[in-house]
Amino acid sequence: MGELIVFIIFATVALVSAIGMVLAKNPVYSAIGLLGAMFSIAVLYVLLDAHFVAAVQVIVYAGAVMTLFLFVIMLIGVDNREAYGPAVPAQRIMTAVVSIGLFAAIVLAGRAAWITGSNAFGTPDLNGTIENVSDELFGTWTVVFLSTVMLLTIAALGTIALAYFGTDVPDEEATL
Amino acid sequence: MSIFIEAAIRAVFVFGFLLVTVILLVWVERKFVSDLQNRVGPDRAGPWGILQTLADGMKSFFKESIRPTNVEVALFVAAPIIALMTALLIFMVVPIGAPVEINGTEYALVGADLNVGLLYVLALSSMAVYAIVFAGWASGSKYPLLGSVRASAQMISYEAAMGLSLVPVVLFAGSTSITTIVEQQQGTFLGVFPAWNIVLLPSFVIFLISGFAETNRAPFDLVEAEQEIVGGYHTEYSGFQFALFFLAEYIAVFNISALTAVLFLGGWSGPVFGPAWIAWVWPIGWFLLKTWAIVLFFVWVRASLPRMRYDHLMSFGWKKLIPVSLAWIILVAIAIGIRDFGLPWS
Amino acid sequence: MTLTISWFLILAAALFSIGVAGVLIRRNALVMFMSIELMLNSVNLTFVAVSRELGLIEGQVAALFVMVVAAAEVTIGLAIIVAVFRRKASANVDELAELRG
Amino acid sequence: MTDLLWILIALPLTGAFINIVFGKRIGEPLAGWLGFVLVGSAWAIAVVPTLGLLTGSGTPETIYLFSWIPVVGADAAILWDPLSALLTMIVTGVGALIHLYSIGYMHGDERFARFFGYLNLFIASMLILVLASNYAVMFIGWELVGLSSYLLISFWFKKPSAAAAGKKAFIVNRIGDWGFLVALMIIFASFGTFDFGVIFTTAPVVLTTGAATAITLLLFLGATGKSAQIPLYIWLPDAMEGPTPVSALIHAATMVTAGVFMMARSAVLFELAPISGVTIAVIGGATALLAAVIAVTQMDIKKVLAYSTISQLGYMVMGVGVGAYSAGVFHLSTHAFFKALLFLGAGSVIHGMADEQDMRKMGGLRKAMPVTFVTMTVGWLAISGIFPFSGFWSKDEILAATFQRGGPWLILWAVGILAALLTAFYMTRLYVLTFLGKPRWAEGTEPHESPWTMTLPLAVLAVAAVIFGVFNTPARLAFEHFLEPSFALISHAEPLDLPLAAVLALFALVVAIGGIAWSWFRYNRDELPVEEGGFWQRGLNGFAVDDLYGRVIVEPGKKVCEWFADSVDPKGIDGVSHGIAQGVRTAGDGLKTLQSGQVRSYAGGIAIGAVVLILAVLALGGGF
């Protein structure tokens, strides 16, 4: 019962934050909304006994990704509010229809291939501790893990390249 | 006793402990700096001015909180609270003494013993960035914004170095639980030297340096460099809200000191004397002694070193600290591999 | 009512749909990006929930990999946005509808 | 040990890569030494397993490397048997010596490193060819060898004649390759695989005599291209435009023997086609004789050797044609040594004479170039078939095998004897004109001995040319025993009785000595005989075979090509591609409105597509 309460609270927070993210006019509030959603998801991970993933979720998303977002928002100017008004006719309505249709389709598909609650909640088979996750990560998935290392290195190089080459336009932000 | 009530008691205790500590800490800093600078320092409120911090706190509490016109109200109000919250929450995982036995039950003297304790610390210290970013942005003014952009870049950079410097500690202890790390530092080498993690000297140094940067203390206090950007992110804050930032900063200093003591100087480990009913005090004493030593070191550095230039700060972080940490991680990993699995050819 | 895995999956589906809506409705590149992050997060939630349900740690490992990919993507994506902003002084994707730099 | 044999190919390939890509930075002497060391190490590595085969401690085997096109039985694998081992030893051994020689010979060339890159590439290609365990891989090696040969012939491509020679070699070889390719197609159609093991064990069951004849004649067409037989021999004399080490390595010792090797490898198939055997033997004999006659009239020292090579290759082909595969391969081995020796010696002479190749302007070089003189003497005696040098044994083997068939084959035997006579004659002519008599040098020429990097290979090859023949004296057929596992699937003729063999050998020896004596007294005098009659002129032109080909094949071919270029290409081919382009353009014009550049409309498309897909899957799977 306690778990259900926690779930309802944080699921609500996640949904509200996510909707807020989409609807907020100011990108900073969008970022805050996403931050809230990510935090709630981290709590839900704890609820699902995935402690390590939860910690990484906070460190990576809240700690690094969202900080970067905010950094960039501030770098390129927060007052740059987008002009509203649909580019495609009836865009909002179409968007609403498509999103709700997608949600319905996913739920329908899920119902067709639903997970058959084999584990009653509260009796976890596994514990998402660092030891358990890392056994799997460095055992079965070593090669994949190493390739993500490559991926990150390449991403870092690409970012540096983008920042270095392409400064032919005079820019005032670089002096920050 | 219900688990919720126990948790609440622990939280209240941690909060109170930190509050008292900070009041002391501000006074100690001012006194110590003035001694180093051949000044007298505060000496009016109470004996040796010991009540000065309380007086300042009262003053700011009753002062009017001025709110400039074009602030984003919600974030402007939330920022100092976030700052204080993260600072308080970090201390939750720091063990301040050996486990104590009351009525046959053993209680760990720690807010919460998490198996991902160190990750928790890193996660929360990355949260601390948001307080500064939000404060700077919500102020709707140029200098706070500049200060917060500086702050976010600086803290992200040094957090990477800090996280990397902790990896050898984790490798050494084989756990990310802070309690386990402290227990692993019990005992001695060769019967003489305490078995502290300070043997991981590069890690210790890097952790300490990035601790300065994370708490925006001199010589890395560019975030609030008066000569360039007035007060940085808290330029527009006043009264009680400013006091909250102030409080948060000093708690952060104490947190970093406590973490240094716990992770590298053996935490509460030390010799224990006397009968059983008094013996439990010793570990707490040792912990406080070590922590305050580091705090005094922080103050000493602040009084001694000038502020760094911003580009120097960034290149120092990325081009020196992080490569050194990486090299050190590799060395430690090899050493531990040899310790656990023997030499590769044996 | 008891908490079952379906709750998590429905929540993930809802978050995913909200993310899709964000991509479709917003024209600020940064917000579109955030919506994509939200979609990734909802998929992660599905992974972890199913991992809990089936008792397989692989789901959590997959979530970790998704996070790595997301981190890489954010790095590059934000760099691109900044680079574009330097040229166009705008983060509005509708103004980028041409093949000229 | 044998599972590391891929290193043999990898080493020269590495050298080729390094020298071609980084050659300019490595610089002059080092690039050459690199090539030499790599090929030399390949030889050293090959020695141990070869000795294993020789002593019987090793067995022939197929070493699987990786899967290439498993469906057609074409995996990258190494067939390690005595035949390939022998060829590997020759290719790497002679190759290494010639690398060493080239360090001296190519001194000062501006594309020094590039040359060694090509040489290494050639060695690697040749090893691929030799070590292949199926026809597909062998064909790759075959083509790579042709490529490196082309690169090396036209190495001095600034000389128009060299460029033309390279082109000619390439095109003429193409005709042979066409034959090889068609043969491969028939083989695949018949067997469904390219794998040697499967083909050779099942061939007697699968192939009819007709099919076997077709395959073998086409394979032989390929061999005439690579091994310079009638009618495709015309590229080899021109190939002498390449640097002399190239002539020695490729156009004497190794590549030209690829055809012989290929036929020996396919011995099982040739056994099934007696008509092909006759054809091959006759063409081989004819080539041997014709080339020998032309060689007699040549004045250029390298041309003489080139025609001599063709003639000797004719011998080998004749040996294969009469079914004496071991004898053919044996002559291939001995020839590799003494012909490489002769070419390198000629190169040394040319080097010492400041690039003079006309024998009329040489003479009396004995004193100026003592080492070259001594080693050339060995080569001369070996090729002339003088006892006990290696050429005597191997040539005699082929002649004996031909004689043994009896009947009409005796004519072929007589042709062979005649060719042997001419061989002794023209080699002596070359020898005498170059080294003996009075100097007839051009003004200002000062012959000098070559550096040690050039003379050392000469000495080593000379030793090999002397002793190698002993391995297969009629009395002690060690060589044949060694090769036996490679030819286990074909029947062997009984060796000749010793007395008869001895008589035949003696007869051949007498013929050779007669040729030498005739030539010696004709040329070893102060006044050179005048050789300007019709025979000599026509011989110098190679009996105008090139002109004949030009008139019969090249000119009509050009006409056909012009017709294609002028009418078929602009109207037919271009019309099709223009039509396709027009269609694509129209379609693009129609579709481009979809690409608005609006990211969100794309995203919307994706989202709608996802919904539709999910619903479709559910509908099809009955999920509702």
Distance between the termini of chain C: 57 Å
Number of helices of chain A: 6
In CATH's first tier, which class of chain C applies?
Answer: Mainly Alpha
Relative strand content of chain C: under 5%
Mean pLDDT of chain A: 77
The CATH architecture category of chain C equals Orthogonal Bundle
Q: Give me the secondary-structure category of chain A.
A: mainly alpha
Globular, elongated, flat, extended or rod-shaped: what is the shape of chain A?
Answer: globular
Question: Sheet bearing the most strands of chain C, described?
Answer: none
- First-to-last CA distance of chain A: 51 Å
**Beta strands of chain C, count:** 0
Order of helices and strands of chain C: HHH
CATH topology assignment of chain C: Helix Hairpins
Mean of residue pLDDT values of chain C: 82
Brief synopsis:
Chain A is 69% helix and 0% strand. With 176 residues, chain A is mainly α. The mean pLDDT of chain D is 86.
Topology:
The complex is a heterotetramer of chains A (176), B (346), C (101) and D (624).
Chain A: H1 2-23, H2 27-47, H3 51-75, H4 91-112, H5 130-137, H6 142-164
Helix pairs in contact in A: 1-2, 2-3
Chain C: H1 5-25, H2 29-54, H3 58-88
Helix pairs in contact in C: 1-2, 2-3
Chain D: H1 6-26, H2 28-55, E1 61-69, E2 74-80, H3 82-105, H4 112-131, H5 135-153, H6 160-191, H7 196-206, H8 209-226, H9 235-238, H10 244-253, H11 258-265, H12 267-271, H13 274-297, H14 301-321, H15 325-352, H16 365-368, H17 370-384, H18 390-405, H19 409-435, H20 452-467, E3 472-473, E4 476-477, H21 478-483, H22 498-523, H23 534-540, H24 545-591, H25 599-621
Antiparallel strand pairs in D: 1-2, 3-4
Helix pairs in contact in D: 1-2, 1-4, 2-3, 2-4, 3-4, 3-10, 3-15, 3-20, 4-5, 5-6, 6-8, 8-11, 8-13, 10-15, 13-14, 13-19, 13-23, 14-15, 14-18, 14-19, 15-17, 15-18, 15-20, 17-19, 17-20, 18-19, 18-22, 19-22
